[in-house]
């Protein structure tokens, strides 16, 4: 029997979350289903309208920072699957080094929280993207130790 790794479940689920976020208002005609999706995603994101992207005037189900995190995970995974050279480079990044990619999101969050300074959705997305990248590297490092 094959051992199931965390990434065997984590990556496809993350991709499905991004796909559902992008297609919610285009493919789901029922308002009841849309409302239940909005309520479901409220457990993982504050869904603040000012901090969320909009698709065709409809607020996405998660904020720009969470969108960046999920996008970072998916795009990094796709790059690793396509490029053996980058996969080798990424596998050499240790957990301590990947934590550096978490510094921007931490600084951005503290500046937003402590000083009530709005860094904007683009900065939130980029810091989330870097964190998604770091999360995938950390996950890959823990699995390679098994």
Produce the secondary structure layout:
Blueprint: H1 6-27, H2 31-41, E1 54-55, E2 58-59, H3 64-82, H4 84-91, H5 95-98, H6 103-115, H7 121-144
Antiparallel strand pairs: 1-2
Helix pairs in contact: 1-3, 3-4, 3-7
* Major beta-sheet overview: 2 strands, antiparallel
Query: What string gives the helices and strands in order?
Result: HHEEHHHHH
The number of helical elements comes to 7
The global form is globular
User: Roughly what is the average pLDDT, rounded to an integer?
Assistant: 77
Tell me the fraction of residues in β-strands, as a range: under 5%
Low-confidence stretches at least 5 residues in length (pLDDT < 50)? none
- The gyration radius over C-alpha positions equals 17 Å
Q: What's the total count of β strands?
A: 2
Q: State the secondary-structure class.
A: mainly alpha
- Strand sequence of the main sheet, in spatial order? 1-2
> What portion of residues is helical?
55-70%
What is the count of structural domains?
A: 1
Termini separation (Å)?
16 Å
């Amino acid at each position: 029997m094959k051992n199931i790794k965390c990434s065997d479940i984590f990556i496809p689920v993350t991709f499905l979350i991004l796909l559902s976020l992008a297609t919610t208002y285009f493919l789901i005609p029922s308002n009841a289903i849309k409302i239940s999706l909005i309520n479901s995603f409220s457990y993982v994101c504050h869904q603040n309208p000012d901090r969320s992207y909009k698709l065709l005037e409809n607020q996405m189900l998660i904020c720009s920072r969470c969108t960046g995190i999920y996008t970072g995970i998916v795009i990094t995974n796709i790059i690793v699957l396509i490029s053996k050279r980058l996969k080798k480079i990424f596998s050499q990044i240790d957990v301590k080094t990947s934590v550096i990619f978490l510094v921007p999101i931490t600084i951005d969050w503290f500046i937003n929280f402590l000083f009530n300074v709005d860094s904007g959705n683009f900065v939130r997305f980029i810091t989330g993207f870097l964190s998604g990248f770091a999360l995938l590297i950390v996950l890959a490092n823990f699995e390679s130790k098994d």
